[in-house]
């Protein structure tokens, strides 16, 4: 567990953030200038806070009141940047082991680097370079892994290629990973915990599924990015129609294509703008997924939109509708309605393990 409490004044900007990052991926999400990089630089020891305390398990890295400030080199922090920053004149093997070779065989296996070892960075794709950068950070035997928009420079196919490796890393290591990202699909797939920063303050923090499905978070995420994340299990395949049936606490969902073996767990992000509400069970519509839900929250936005929180079984979903529809349908908290989700609303980037 990484405990973070950081106060820092940088010119006009003040950062005042406190949260815990358990094992797994803690995503830091926030608009440009909200303080994400300053925060992770403080964890790395590259920026000295004015006050606060940073500790990983029992090891204190910074404590202003106790005058503890472990220098960068002593913090055992692995840092992966947006650009891989590999040494161009060294092959992958030597880039990987430059700072150490802790668990080298496992790291090479986990990140699928075996076939790249003799190559130079110039001959690698962007995604391969980032995998090497990740491997290099891990071989230093870090106690914390910091990743600052590590996939931001990659195109969608390269991102899709590397995401399963990051998921594997999250699931196999106990090292807390702090992951800065602007991309909500990436956050929904990878994060265990989500911290939303707004103007240097923690606007909301908690398990990713809870945070993303809260209607009051919509303004921080932006209306297009808002959407709930649910844990599902593959329950079946409809081969003739090329669909996969997913089961979750609120019912079953049909999604296009092959999504995994029966029984496999899948995390699904359902964008709020793709959820339609109906007061009665609709008939004669093309959408495949109709779920009975209960309205838990209604949060008006600044514009014409309203975020509606919905309970489906033990899970929370989120819909974004217009204020006009809300009024016309006379929707209210506690009311039972139907959520309609098009099977094609959820893209491949929204589905993770
Ligand atoms: N050395 C500095 N002196 C003064 N202000 C600074 C300094 N470094 C950063 N800032 C300011 O602190 C604020 C937070 O910057 P930071 O880079 O942490 O934000 P960010 O959330 O990482 O942004 P982005 O997503 O654009 O990278 C910004 O307003 C920035 O201009």
Write the layout of secondary structure elements.
Elements: E1 2-10, E2 13-21, E3 25-30, H1 36-44, E4 51-56, E5 59-63, E6 68-69, E7 77-80, H2 92-96, H3 104-110, H4 126-139, E8 144-148, H5 156-172, E9 177-180, H6 184-190, E10 193-198, E11 201-207, H7 208-212, H8 218-221, E12 227-238, E13 243-248, E14 251-256, E15 265-271, E16 275-278, E17 289-300, E18 305-312, E19 315-322, H9 323-329, E20 336-341, E21 351-352
Parallel strand pairs: 3-9, 3-10, 7-8, 8-9
Antiparallel strand pairs: 1-2, 1-4, 4-5, 5-6, 10-11, 12-13, 12-15, 13-14, 15-21, 16-20, 17-18, 17-20, 18-19
Helix pairs in contact: 4-5
The chain binds adenosine-5'-triphosphate (ATP).
Adenosine-5'-triphosphate (ATP) binds next to helix 1.
Domain Mop: 284-350
GO molecular function: ABC-type transporter activity; ATP binding; ATP hydrolysis activity; molybdate ion transmembrane transporter activity
Domain ABC transporter: 1-224
């Amino acid at each position: 567990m990484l405990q973070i409490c950081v106060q820092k004044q940088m010119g006009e900007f003040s950062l005042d953030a406190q949260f815990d990052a358990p094992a797994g991926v803690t995503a830091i999400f926030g608009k440009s200038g909200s303080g994400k990089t300053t925060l992770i630089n403080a964890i790395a020891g590259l920026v000295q806070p004015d006050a606060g305390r940073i500790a990983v398990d029992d090891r204190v890295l910074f404590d202003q009141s106790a005058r503890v400030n472990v220098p960068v080199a002593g913090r055992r922090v692995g840092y992966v940047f947006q650009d891989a920053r590999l040494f161009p004149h060294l092959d992958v093997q030597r880039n990987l082991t430059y700072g150490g070779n802790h668990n080298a065989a496992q790291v090479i296996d986990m990140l699928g680097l075996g076939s790249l070892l003799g190559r130079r960075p110039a001959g690698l794709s962007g995604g391969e370079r980032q995998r090497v950068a990740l491997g290099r950070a891990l071989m230093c035997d870090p106690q914390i892994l910091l990743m600052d928009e590590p996939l931001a420079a990659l195109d969608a196919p390269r991102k899709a290629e590397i995401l399963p490796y990051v998921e594997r890393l999250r699931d196999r290591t106990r090292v807390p990973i702090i992951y800065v990202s602007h991309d909500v699909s990436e956050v929904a797939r990878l994060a265990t915990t989500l911290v939303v920063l707004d103007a240097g303050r923690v606007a909301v923090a908690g398990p990713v599924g809870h945070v993303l499905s809260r209607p009051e978070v919509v303004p921080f995420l932006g209306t297009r990015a808002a959407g709930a994340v649910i844990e599902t299990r593959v329950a079946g395949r409809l081969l003739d129609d090329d669909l996969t049936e997913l089961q979750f606490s609120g019912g079953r969902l049909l999604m296009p294509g092959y999504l995994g073996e029966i029984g496999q767990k899948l995390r699904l992000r359902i964008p709020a703008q793709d959820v339609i509400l109906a007061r009665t069970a609709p008939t004669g519509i093309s959408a495949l997924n109709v779920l009975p839900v209960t309205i838990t929250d209604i949060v008006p936005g600044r514009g014409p939109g309203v975020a509606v929180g919905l309970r489906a079984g033990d899970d929370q979903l989120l819909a974004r509708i217009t204020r006009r529809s809300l009024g016309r349908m006379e929707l209210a908290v506690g009311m039972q309605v139907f959520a309609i989700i098009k099977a094609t609303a959820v893209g491949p980037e929204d589905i993770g393990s």
